[in-house]
Design a protein that fits this description.
The protein is mainly α. The chain is about 70% helix and about 5% strand. Mean pLDDT is about 80; it is low at about 340-345 and about 350-355.
């Protein structure tokens, strides 16, 4: 089971929308929209002045300025949005680290590793960037529609704001009625994308190695997941767009009726009709924006559910420790002490062969320096025993698995296996301050000379630390 601290996850999500970059970006965007929407006022007053024969130069000058100047805050907002995205990704990485740090119980779960790394490297950042782009678009279009409707109501017809408000209220009611269905479709679509990503992560070996059997299995599984991903995402998009069409009709029809009413009421007033004629294209643009705005409004649940699902998926499992304990067959593991080890009278009694009952017996040996070797049948849980010790000792222990991508000061991927391990052990000896060193099958894939050389180095480490190793041979 996974930790489901929804309060914490909601706080993490709200932090994405309330950090300083988000607030700065949206504030600049608000200022830009005021400048852009105010052009409607100056255009209407300019047209009325022309028809009435009064001075119109100030209105046309201000109108032209608003058309040109609004690009400046828009460019600034784009810069802030880029910073906002980077800060959001930093926050997501910190959330992943906070949820999973020292969670060694899940380390060797390959399926969970693929899922979480897919979320961390691909699905998570993409969802964050999509959310920020979504908030940007929604904020821009809502402000544009709202401010233009307000300005049209002030200078042309107050009924616009009334009918539009009623229409929006009906749309919100419809959105609430369909929210549950939208959430289910969103979760299914996300699950399908994650499954597809897991298949694609194994593409390298299955495609390049040329084993027909493996490729056929991989291709069949990937095709199934690709089709399922396609079907579920199209179903979600179809649902969203159908609701958006109904929302657009609910919003646009009342506004068009107000247009007919206004023309009929002022059919003998050339000043009003001329100004109204000027804003008709703007009105139809607003109606188009309204459709897009309502469509975006429906997607809020999609983005929210998707991110909540991602944050939930990166949480640590709460039952990993019992699973580790149950995987170990203690009666199949043999522990031996280094031949040169000297045990003082004050040291805990050394456990004898086949007397290990639990990892607690091994923990008792970590209070002294020396080298303890674990051997046993494949699948007996030797590596898992090291993981339990690491989990119990936390920062007091350093765990070095056979295959890993741990970060070291000296990049070792350009060296041979033996030389790479030597450099890592030397760095641990010089720079890592721990009491216990846990080595998991370090001798795998090494020739006899490298094994003997590295074994001597491990003996030096055992003079300063407690070394517990799992040997391949």
């Amino acid at each position: 089971m996974f930790s489901t601290d929804y309060k914490k996850m909601r706080k993490q999500m709200s932090g994405l929308l309330t950090n300083r970059f988000a607030i700065a970006c949206l504030s600049v965007l608000f200022f830009q929209q005021i400048i852009e929407s105010s052009a409607t006022l100056w255009l209407v007053w300019f047209m009325q002045s022309v028809v009435e024969g009064v001075p119109y130069l100030p209105y046309i000058v201000i109108y032209l300025i608003t058309l040109a100047v609004h690009y400046i805050p828009s460019c600034i907002a784009f810069i802030l949005k880029a910073e906002w995205k980077q800060e959001a990704q930093r926050s997501f990485i910190n959330a992943f680290v906070s949820a999973n740090r020292n969670n060694i119980g899940e380390w060797n779960n390959k399926a969970l590793k693929e899922e979480k790394l897919s979320l961390l490297t691909t699905e998570g950042p993409a969802a964050l960037h999509a959310l920020i782009d979504y908030v940007w678009d929604l904020f821009t279009w809502v402000l544009s529609v709202f401010l233009n409707i307000i300005f049209l109501s002030v200078v042309v017809e107050p009924l616009f704001v009334i009918t539009y408000s009623l229409s929006v209220a009906l749309v919100v009611l419809m959105m609430k009625m369909k929210r549950k269905t939208q959430r289910k479709l969103t979760q299914k679509a996300l699950s399908a994308r994650v499954d597809l990503c897991q298949s694609l992560l194994s593409a390298w070996d299955n495609v390049l190695l040329g084993n027909h059997y493996n490729f056929e299995l991989w291709d069949e599984k990937t095709s199934q997941r690709l089709n399922r991903c396609l079907q579920r995402n199209i179903a979600l998009e179809r649902f969203d767009q159908t609701l958006a069409i109904f929302a657009a009709l609910i919003t646009s029809v009342p506004s068009l009726l107000v247009v007919v009413y206004f023309v009929f009421q002022h059919k003998n007033d050339p000043v009003q009709l001329s100004s109204f004629l000027v804003i008709l294209p703007i009105l139809f643009t607003i109606i188009t924006y309204t459709y897009q705005t309502i469509s975006l409004g429906f997607r809020w649940g999609l983005h929210k559910t998707k991110l909540m699902s991602i944050y939930k998926a990166i949480q640590a499992s709460t039952d990993s420790h019992p699973i580790l304990v149950n995987k170990i067959k203690w009666d199949k593991i043999k522990a031996t002490l280094s031949k040169d080890e000297k045990v003082s009278a004050a040291s805990p009694p050394f456990i004898q062969s086949h007397t290990i009952a639990s990892h607690t017996d091994l923990l008792e040996q970590t209070s002294r320096k020396g080298r303890l070797t674990l051997r046993g049948e494949n699948g007996s849980g030797k590596s898992t025993a090291l993981m339990l010790i690491k989990n119990a000792l936390a920062k007091r222990a350093f765990f070095l698995p056979t295959q890993n991508t741990l970060s070291f000061f000296d990049e070792t991927n350009k060296y041979s296996t033996g030389e790479s391990l030597r450099k890592r052990l030397c760095e641990i000896l010089e720079k890592v301050d721990v009491d216990v060193l846990l080595l998991d099958e370090w001798d795998a894939n090494l020739d006899k000379d490298n094994q003997e050389s590295l074994s001597d180095l491990i003996d030096k480490l055992a003079e300063k630390k407690c070394v517990i190793e799992v040997r391949h041979r």
